[in-house]
Amino acid sequence: MLALLPWICLLLPYVYSKARALDVLNLGEQTAAGLGAPVEKERLALLASAVGLAGTSVAVSGGIGFIGLIGPHLARRLVGPQHRLLLPTSALTGSLLLIVADTIGRWILEPSEIPAGIVAAVIGAPYFLYLLARR
């Protein structure tokens, strides 16, 4: 768990400080370039930050993929597209989903338990299919 701490302390504040750049990049490449944003530089730096955070999180906690897919979509429906609110809400939503999945996994087969990743996939798959069908 301590292996995750330096990555979070360095990259999370950086990504949060780039919330406006994320909002501008969300408008599209041409619009962002027209507004004066260094599109390639920002995209590369933010992609490297996302890979660093995701890679260390998976290395510490294991693969719980549906949390990373469903959490941000639920958060966007709750707070809208502004990244200043979306980033912390995504983290809290993902944390809450994982806690719920772990609790359900421990409760269903009480003497033993179901891994949280499997429960998260069972919970998240219908919502993910709903999102795919909606678009």
From TrEMBL:
<feature type="transmembrane region" description="Helical">
    <location>
        <begin position="44"/>
        <end position="73"/>
    </location>
</feature>
<feature type="transmembrane region" description="Helical">
    <location>
        <begin position="85"/>
        <end position="108"/>
    </location>
</feature>
<keyword id="KW-0813">Transport</keyword>
<keyword id="KW-0472">Membrane</keyword>
<feature type="transmembrane region" description="Helical">
    <location>
        <begin position="114"/>
        <end position="133"/>
    </location>
</feature>
<protein>
    <recommendedName>
        <fullName>Iron ABC transporter permease</fullName>
    </recommendedName>
</protein>
<dbReference type="Pfam" id="PF01032">
    <property type="entry name" value="FecCD"/>
</dbReference>
<keyword id="KW-0812">Transmembrane</keyword>
<dbReference type="InterPro" id="IPR000522">
    <property type="entry name" value="ABC_transptr_permease_BtuC"/>
</dbReference>
<keyword id="KW-1003">Cell membrane</keyword>
<comment type="similarity">
    <text>Belongs to the binding-protein-dependent transport system permease family. FecCD subfamily.</text>
</comment>
<dbReference type="InterPro" id="IPR037294">
    <property type="entry name" value="ABC_BtuC-like"/>
</dbReference>
<keyword id="KW-1133">Transmembrane helix</keyword>
